[in-house]
Amino acid sequence: MFSSIKRTQSRKILFAILALLSLLVGVACTQAPTRGWSGPTVASGPVAEEDTLFVGTLGGKVIALENIYQNPPTPLWPEAKEIGGSKGGGLFACGGGISKPMSTYGTPAIAGGKVYIGGYDGHVYSFTTDASGSMNEFDTGSSIIGSPIIADDTLFVGNSDGKLYALDLDLSPKPNWPFKTGDKIWATPTVYDGVVYIGSCDDKLYAIDIETGKEIWHFKAEGAFLSTPAIANDTIYIGACDRKFYAIDVATEEQREAASSGTPAFSKDAKWVFDKAKNWFWTQALVYNGKVWVGSLDKNVYAINENDPTDYFIACETKGVVQTPPVLMGVNRILVGSEDGNIWAIDPQIEGDSGRVLYSEAGAPILAPMYADQEKGILFFHAQDGTHTLYALKIEATDKVDELKVTQLWNRRTDK
Question: 212: helix, coil or strand?
Fold first, then answer.
């Protein structure tokens, strides 16, 4: 039913997205959602005093944990850092002020001894990654749903006014920014070779020159972009709310130079289109072993030949929507979380449905990006429903080729 979506129907798209979010959070309009998608990020070495994990909560806090490879981990800060505030009705609010349980959804980013996170109140917050956790903030003016990313000492983050901001690491705005799209930005950007790529609810994916803040080109889909672009071999892989998944060539140096000299932006065509999914794409893909691995809200994980969309198979049939980006572990398995509360393991060497439940004890939807420590074989993930719990799993190979050993190192509530 999305094949003929026009720009004038964007309100219908947003209403449908809101309905989907209501389904995901499973609550009535009169109360705040109890599920979100703030995933964990881990810092080590000179960025933090120890291996330290940072994660946002829907209670309006940022948690920092040290000694994360031991049980139990220990808090870096004496108390979790409070963020958020009152800003009136918005994406999830039916009216009035924003309640604390709506304060953050995005995954933190780390650089230069600081951790950054976007708030639903429209502020970008930074905290030093030492024991003091000194705070700074910048107000974008509208709710932030996606995650900030950092590249070349610049932080990029979108907001619900449709603006993409570029900030120095001290949170001062960069010249020539923000960049304005035609509708809300709920997605997370990606930076590659001097260009930032961001999807918008105006059904477009934009390529923007980092230095000038000028649009190089845009790609027009038939539904909103909520996914984060994945880039490999000079190709952008991204899905949209039209049930389609796209491969698009990255911007060239010649195109960047033309945009900088004042040449108008142009409309880009896709290299190929995959149209076999039965629902939207709302997650970043993983490009590995010649295939693009991506989950859909139709509960499936697809494996698509990175050069030929007709060459594909369903790699895993989960029992819930897949909003969590797949990650690769050193045991040569692709792991993905699902709304069904399971972590699924996919064998990338098998052509077909190789998905098996790896871990089922979370008992709550897994909607946030996971963090895979390849070197230590540890998976960190945030399971979220009425109670929110952070998990650390040790994943090891066994003598049996098709089996993995999973040991829970620890779990910790994040909603208290």
Answer: coil
216, two tokens: 């190089």
CA distance 67 to 70: 6
Buried b (16+ CB within 10 A) or exposed e, 285-298: bbbbeebbbbbbbb
**Eight-class DSSP state of 9:** G
pLDDT along the chain (416 residues), means of 10: 36 41 34 59 71 89 93 93 61 40 81 94 95 96 95 96 98 97 97 98 98 97 97 98 98 96 96 98 96 98 98 98 94 94 96 95 93 94 86 90 89 87
* DSSP code for 234: T
Cα–Cα distance between 65 and 72 in angstroms, integer?
A: 10
Helices then strands, each counted (H, E), the chain: 2, 34
Sign of CA dihedral 230, 14, 164, 84: negative
Are residues 254 and 210 in contact, defined by beta-carbon separation less than 8 angstroms? no
Tell me the residue type at 117.
I
Q: Which of 340, 333, 347 is nearest to 364 (CA)?
A: 340
